[in-house]
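> example.struct
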């Protein structure tokens, strides 16, 4: 049975063009990785128990430490990651003042098979990037969500 995740992609349009707000995944697996180590603020949900829009807003608050930006959500569609997980993305226009505060945490055995468990933040930082910069930072499976946002914003 596939896993379902929903994420929020805040964006702003200004003199520098379109900028998107993405998060860097925390923990020992991603900590030293920049290229491909970023994501939409996203998390799991169970279809039928929670709407993906609600999950995206909830997870944003948990991972960024501030409420999700208000505003109409733009449905960016769903992508399937190489792991099989399905990610439903939503964009929302946001203030360029939006900033990372703090993230929830998770516990993992680290180093592996050591018997020691450590706590890490799910997200260790976040930032604003142009679409081109974000394309190099996001995990490969989420890049089509940037394309969907670009298409939406340039549609006549």
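> example.seq
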């Amino acid at each position: 049975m596939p896993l379902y995740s929903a994420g929020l992609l805040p964006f702003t349009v200004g003199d520098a063009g379109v900028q998107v707000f993405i998060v860097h995944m925390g923990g020992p697996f991603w900590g030293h990785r920049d290229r491909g180590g970023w994501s939409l603020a996203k998390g799991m949900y169970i279809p039928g128990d929670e709407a993906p829009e609600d999950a995206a807003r909830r997870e944003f608050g948990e991972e960024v430490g501030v409420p999700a930006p208000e505003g109409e959500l733009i449905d960016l569609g769903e992508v399937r990651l190489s792991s099989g997980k399905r990610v439903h993305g939503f964009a929302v226009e946001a203030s360029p003042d939006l900033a990372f505060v703090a993230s929830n945490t998770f516990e993992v055995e680290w180093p592996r098979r050591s018997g020691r468990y450590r706590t890490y933040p799910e997200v260790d930082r976040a930032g604003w990037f142009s679409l081109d910069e974000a394309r190099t930072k996001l995990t490969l499976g989420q890049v089509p969500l940037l394309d969907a946002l670009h298409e939406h914003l340039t549609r006549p």
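> remarks
Residues 20 and 134 are 7 Å apart (CA to CA).
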